[in-house]
Amino acid sequence: MDAVGWGIVGYGWVARDYMEPGIRAAGHRLVAVCDPNPECRAAAERAGARGHADLAGLIAEPGVEAVYVATPNHLHRGAVEALAAAGKAVLCEKPMAATLADAEAIACAVESQEIFYGTAFDQRHHPAHRTIRAQVAAGRLGTVTTVRIVYACWLGRDWSEAGQPNWRIDAAQAGGGALMDLAPHGLDLVDFLLDEPIADLAALTQSRAQDYSVDDGALLIGRTAGGALASLHVAYNCPDALPRRRLEVVGTKGMLIAENTMGQTAGGSLSFVDGASGRVEPLAFDADNSPFTEQVRAFGSALRRPEERGAYSAARDLHTMRLVARAYGQG
User: Which of 32, 39, 109, 198 has the maximal Cβ count within 10 Å?
Assistant: First the structure.
């Protein structure tokens, strides 16, 4: 039976609003949740899952086959190491950890325990982005020269969801600010779209509009080993009413433009601009399924079919984490 029994560690707003609905939409089951907050456990129980205050209780659940780790970044390592020791499959939120050292420890635990592991780069699973990858692979764009990404939002000090404190602006818990939170998606997405990782990277950060210590914006420029250029603008200082989510892939024969596809929700738009005529062609894709739903389907399918696990790589995700560290001047 393809339905997978899931556990969730850290039942915050992303887990509640996106992962839990994604599990159900994919035809899987949410079995149990681990969270020290009694209100979060109560919310999980209202959703039909058993709540545990500690990780040992969730690990002991025989129906939990795969676990989504959605704690603050600095807690990823401890959760993944314990789950790996228990032989559970793990889908861990990005970034892998708050520090490169913890990310390296996660990769070591995954390898030594030989578990099925993935980092939750949900943008790989947005149907529009899968369409872009297919178009690139088919040669529609000719030689790809550039990928440009804008992924921005407004995140003020007082932001709160589901009554939770805003840990994303605490350097000790998050490991950084807008760059740490948003740039990993773009860095990984370049690899996915072009089937070629970024090899060289430089970055500038800013603390310009928000009154907290972590960065509220960053510009990153990168180059793949094959010579394609990438630029990423990520921000916590862009008002949400402004255009703030755009992806462009430029080649010698044309250009693909995706708007409002970067993020957790379904939909957005995708178009091809012909390089010879300038003609704009809207491209269809599945606008109904969110990247979270598709991510759950893909991970569950690979759990049942080991031959599909080549799409996941802790080593590749560690490379992305090293790029983030380099962007912060740490590597």
Answer: 198
